Amino acid sequence: MRNPTAGTPFTEREGGRTYLQIMSRTPGAREILNNSDHRAYPVPAGPWALSMSWHDLLFMHWPVPADELRPLIPPALNLDTFDGDAWLGVVPFRMSGVRPRLLPAVPGLSGFPELNLRTYVSAGGRPGIWFFSLDAHNPVAVRLARATFHLPYFDARMSSRKEGDGISYRSIRTHRGAPSAEFAGSYRPVGGPFESRPGSLERFLTERYCLYAADGKGRVRRGEIHHQLWPLRPAEAEVETLRMTGQIGVDLPDTPPLLHFSERLGVLAWPPKRLEP
């Protein structure tokens, strides 16, 4: 699977620094907050709650009929479409440096692989992400996220390792009583980095600054996040096993996915807040 794509190249930017110089480190919270012109709405007021970095991320996206996903989304949310299609994403990556504000990262708890199944929604003019599932190789993180963010996190046995210029990734859900899910494959970037253009499909799929989740009573909450503009690259992937969508009763189309890779991104997150009726 390979997807050539177009966008604005990452060349000299931010005071003459190149892409390689920018991505050689994870920016601090102040630097992340000072870069916000690309957002559709302002950075949230108030202190952020969590800081983290996302590494070696693959976006795998397929167009699906909107009427297949609409019944799976709470009525309080709009299902977002692009040119009439809803989009389903499978996203494997690795997290590091996960820590609460004013506290250090805890070795053994602050870094782990994660895999999510998602689509795109909005409420009150704020485009965001709806997660059908999030698998993580960290039992503590799974339980904290389920309790505090009301996100559908599940325990999984996972690995993410570099092999040459690519990533080998494996995930098998082990969560007791949960529907099965499995992903195995490898992926790599195949082109130079670029910035998504406003109005493009890449911008629609990637530049979203909140997530939505529902608690046990069906009340929807919004969790705000912030990061710099995604440094995307075209990607290719060899998928051995992809059993992620049976849990929601949706079949993927028999077409190659749209693929993008990103090496690293620093992220800030705010506590979730209940949507006003």
Textual characterization of the structure:
Mean pLDDT is 89; it is low at 10-24. Helices cover 11% and strands 45% of the residues. Strands 2, 3, 4, 5, 6, 7, 8, 9, 11, 12, 13, 14 and 15 form a 13-stranded mixed beta sheet that branches. It has a two-stranded antiparallel sheet with strand order 1-10. It has one domain (8-274): Beta Barrel (Acetoacetate decarboxylase-like). It has helices at residues 19-23, 29-33, 66-69, 139-148, 201-206, and strands at 8-9, 50-64, 78-79, 86-100, 112-123, 126-136, 153-163, 166-173, 182-189, 194-195, 210-214, 220-227, 233-243, 258-269, 273-274. The chain is globular. InterPro entries: ADC_dom_sf (IPR023375), DUF2071 (IPR018644). This is DUF2071 domain-containing protein. Pfam families: DUF2071 (PF09844).
